[in-house]
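Throughout this chapter, every protein is written as a compact record of paired, labelled lines. The reader may check this reading against the record printed directly beneath this paragraph:
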Amino acid sequence: FFIHSNYIDPVSRQSRYISSASRLTLVNVELIGLKMDLPIGFIIAILVAVVLKYFMDKSRLGFEIKAVGSNPKGASYAGINVGKTMVLTMVLSGAFAGLAGVTYYLGYFASIQPRVLPAMGFNAIAVSLLGNLNPYGIIASSFIISIIDKGSTYMSSIAGVRQEIASVITGLILLFSATTAYIQQKIRRGKDRQENIPGKEIEK
């Protein structure tokens, strides 16, 4: 709302320019012998992933979130408030999404570009599935998706490869990741049914 009303630039139709003093970027950082501008959001993302991993594995709410996500009915029978857990999960997800948006724009761009956001959401889904929904795995998969995305620009200018190929590759990764998760779930349910066959314990 604010980007399209009070803070919009009438010429570029984007948000007003963000001054360099307000950007979350470390300027002229020397890394591997090269000087570059390092977005602080990169550091924040790693810290958040570590904290989130600890939160999901060690806290009560993290256990409840995983239980509800895995089996809502089973979690309800165990005494977990499914509705409350879902609402808290959405609140936390919104907070992390807002943090990602702020660090992305303040650390990478000099202005907020509303049209970029929808594509970033699809990339986030691909990164999450490729990382097997594990915070540490997501860190690694984000590098892979970034290499594909940024490498497409280089390949387009050098070899004439269309940039849309990056979207195709990302889509295939998303498809194979989702298919793998679906197959694993089917195998797991099949094993559970085999273990719960009446009389199987007697046969043993």
Q: What stands out?
A: The chain has a mean pLDDT of 77. The first strand starts at residue 25 and ends at 31.
